C-alpha cells in the first residue's frame, strides 16, 4: 500500500468537508484513506500544530485557509494529470485515478502549469470534477442534480461522476455511460429507490447507492 502523505490527509479532509452539515471526525478521515485511527489522530494533531486545520477532540475538524489552499493545490495537480492521461495518453477514465494519486505528489508547479497550458486551461477533469486554477479559484459549476433527484420522463446529460472505484467506472463504460451522455429517466422503484435509465436503446436498473454518484443537468 502506498504511503499516505500529509497532502493526502489534507485533501481527504477538504473532500469530507464538502458534504453539507458534515462535521469531519478522525474516524471519517481514517475510513476514507483506509488507515488506522491511531495514525490518523497522530497526523491530525500534527496538521493542527502546523496550522493546516482547526481540531477539537470529540467535536471534529475543519481546514484553515492555509489548509484549504494546500488541498486545492493538490486537487489541481491531480485533476490536470487525470485529464492529460485521458486526452493525451488515451487511458480510460477508470484507469487514471490511481496514476494521478501518485503523480500529484511528485510534480513541480512548473510542469503543472505547462500541462495546464498544453490542455488549454481546462475547467473540468474526465469525471466532471472542477479544476482549480493556479490561484485556487474554482470554475462556475453547472446546476447539476444527482440521479435520485432527476425527474421521471425527462432526459438529462451526465456531467459528473464522483466515485473513483475502477470497478464502478468500468461498469459505467460497459453500459455506455460517459460524460455528456444523454439518458432518459424511465422510472423509479419505490421499493428500493433504484432508478431505471435508458442509455441509447438499452435500459438499466441503477441502485440508489450507485445513483448518488451520478450528476446530471436537464437536456433541453
Structure write-up:
It is a single chain. The protein has eight helices and eight strands. It is α+β, with helices and mostly antiparallel strands. The chain folds into three domains: 6-63, Orthogonal Bundle (Arc Repressor Mutant, subunit A); 72-140, Winged helix-like DNA-binding domain superfamily/Winged helix DNA-binding domain (Arc Repressor Mutant, subunit A, Orthogonal Bundle); 145-218, SH3 type barrels, CATH 2.30.30. The strands form two sheets. A six-stranded antiparallel β-sheet has the order 3-8-4-5-6-7. The chain has a two-stranded antiparallel sheet with strand order 1-2. α1 packs across α4, α4 (65-87) crosses α5 (96-103) and α4 (65-87) packs across α6. The longest helix is centred in the middle third of the chain and has 23 residues, at 65-87. The protein is globular, with a radius of gyration of 19 Å. The model has no long low-confidence stretch (mean pLDDT 93).
Instruction: Return Rg in Å.
Output: 19 Å
CATH class of the largest domain: Mainly Beta
Corresponding CATH superfamily of the largest domain = Ferrous iron transport protein A (FeoA)
Low-confidence stretches: none
Give the helix/strand class.
Answer: alpha+beta
Distance between the termini: 45 Å
Q: Write down the CATH topology of the largest domain.
A: SH3 type barrels
Amino acid at each position: 500500500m502506498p504511503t499516505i502523505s500529509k497532502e493526502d490527509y489534507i485533501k481527504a479532509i477538504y473532500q469530507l468537508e464538502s458534504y453539507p452539515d458534515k462535521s469531519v471526525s478522525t474516524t471519517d478521515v481514517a475510513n476514507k484513506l483506509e488507515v488506522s485511527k491511531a495514525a490518523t489522530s497522530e497526523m491530525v494533531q500534527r496538521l493542527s500544530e502546523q496550522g493546516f486545520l482547526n481540531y477539537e477532540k470529540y467535536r471534529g475538524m475543519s481546514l484553515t485557509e492555509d489548509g484549504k489552499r494546500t488541498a486545492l493545490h493538490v486537487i489541481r495537480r491531480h485533476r490536470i494529470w487525470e485529464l492529460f492521461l485521458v486526452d493525451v495518453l488515451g487511458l480510460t477514465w477508470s484507469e487514471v485515478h490511481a496514476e494521478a494519486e501518485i503523480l500529484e505528489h511528485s510534480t513541480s508547479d512548473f510542469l503543472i502549469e505547462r500541462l495546464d497550458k498544453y490542455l488549454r486551461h481546462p475547467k473540468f477533469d474526465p469525471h466532471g470534477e472542477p479544476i482549480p486554477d493556479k490561484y485556487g479559484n474554482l470554475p462556475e459549476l453547472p446546476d447539476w442534480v444527482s440521479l435520485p433527484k432527476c425527474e421521471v420522463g425527462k432526459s438529462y446529460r451526465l456531467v459528473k461522476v464522483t466515485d473513483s472505484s475502477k470497478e464502478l467506472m468500468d461498469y459505467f463504460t460497459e453500459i455506455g455511460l460517459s460524460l455528456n451522455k444523454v439518458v432518459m429517466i424511465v422510472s423509479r422503484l419505490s421499493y428500493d429507490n433504484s432508478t431505471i435509465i435508458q442509455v441509447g436503446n438499452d435500459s438499466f436498473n441503477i441502485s440508489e447507492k450507485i445513483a448518488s454518484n451520478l450528476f446530471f443537468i436537464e437536456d433541453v
